[in-house]
Amino acid sequence: MFMRSERLFLRPGWPEDWQEIHDGIADEAIVRNLASAPWPYGAEDARGFAARAQDQRYPHFFITLPTAAEPARIIGCIGLDPVGDAVDLGYWIAREHWGRGYASEAARAVLELAGMLGHQRVTASHFGDNPASGRVLRKLGFQPTGRTAMRHSKGRGGSAEAVEYTLELSCPHDCDDDPPLMRAA
Questions:
Q1: Does the N terminus or the C terminus of the chain have fewer Cβ atoms within 10 A?
Q2: How far is residue 116's CA from residue 110's CA, in Å, rounded to a whole number?
Q3: What Cα–Cα distance (Å) separates residue 36 from each residue in 9, 49, 72, 114, 131?
Q4: Model pLDDT for residues 68-119, shown as the tens digit of each residue
């Protein structure tokens, strides 16, 4: 599955992408804000992630930045994961691309896809010491649930408090409106 937004191209990963993934994510400031990536992040971690199988109900994408001068470079990753009976949104952007709206742009595309896949509710969270991710989620229409939970982070080597958010997708894939609209829970 491939998706295009205004500035980005979202695509599945291939095993040969491991070096670009490693170059983008092997930064403690990124890894410490993820639940499942270990620190230090090694070449074998990147190889395993690049070769990860796709799930059509819970897709993940490499975020690429196409340019006229060179092939599209991987600048991050975004995807949906099943968590209990919810669908969770997760993402990361390479440090050199922070502050440019790429996370929000990629997330809008993935949230629209989530609605087309029939998901009606999406959750997300961020560690309390990562308020920038909270700003991205609020910009997308996510609302804080008022709950925090201890969440394990391999990169931190333990648990840290995470702020929880939710977003209700107002139009399931089979309704007549197009495209699916999002509303806060």
A1: N
A2: 10
A3: 24, 11, 26, 22, 19
A4: 767 789 999 999 999 888 899 999 999 999 999 999 999 999 999 999 999 9
